[in-house]
Amino acid sequence: MFVPCGGRPESIDFSSATRLITDGRPNIPYIVEGANLFITQEAKLRLEKAGTIVFKDASANKGGVTSSSLEVLASLSFDDAGFIEHMCVKDDGTVPEFYQAYVRQVQATIRENARLEFETLWREGEATGESRSILSDRLSIAITRMDEELQATELWDNVELRRSVLNDALPKLLLDKIGLDSILERVCLPPILLDIFSMMNTLANHTIYRSPTPTSAPSSVLSSPAASSTAWASAPAPSASSPS
Q1: In this structure, are 157 and 205 located in the same domain?
Q2: What is the pTM of this model?
Q3: Are 95 and 85 a contacting pair, CB within 8 Å?
Q4: Crossing angle for the helix pair 80-87 and 62-77, nearest 10 degrees?
Q5: Cα(95)–Cα(101) distance, rounded to whole angstroms?
Q6: Residue 228: how many CB atoms within 10 A of its CB?
Q7: Which domain holds residue 159?
Q8: What is the dihedral of CA 49, 53, 57, 62, to 10 degrees?
Q9: Which of 41, 69, 112, 200 has the most beta carbons within 10 angstroms of its beta carbon?
């Protein structure tokens, strides 16, 4: 397995990708692109055609976005004294218990989102025979489009739905320590909570991942029970036939 996590963009292009193929077979069976733009799209398609299983940066790096978003959320949710007490390393090097637990919760969120992303891409790849690099782009576009469409609806104005979604989407540790009402009061930038409402492991992601056509993401799902109630929260995740 090759996991490039640094280097210049386009370090592997279509020409150099051929050096990773011998007699039509890939020298590296699996590539997970940790570095942004390390491999050109043309090279990814060339490697996939030869049999390499490639997961591109658009999918592999989503955990970093989740991590930074939840870090910013914590800093906005605490008051100054609470942030220093629970999120800052002490002068003697002691790490607050809350911080350590929060890191573990963020990691669990990233693992769950990564599982959903992988299973969706694997299932779609097996069903359609389409390149996973292309499916990764389509999935990202579908989630972004769904996010934009959700924000354009009046779902946010449904107070019961809004609170239900945020209670599920926001880290439980923050909710237990601070409470939803205090978070809503302190995070005084509505776009942040609106993004969390529609994107962060909630309506957009789960609706797309559970859609029978996730890479096309028809707007009609907005009127489905998954988008108009809290039913999506307990819906089973898609199953996938994946390698052991």
Answers
A1: yes
A2: 0.75
A3: no
A4: 130
A5: 10
A6: 16
A7: 61-233
A8: 140
A9: 200
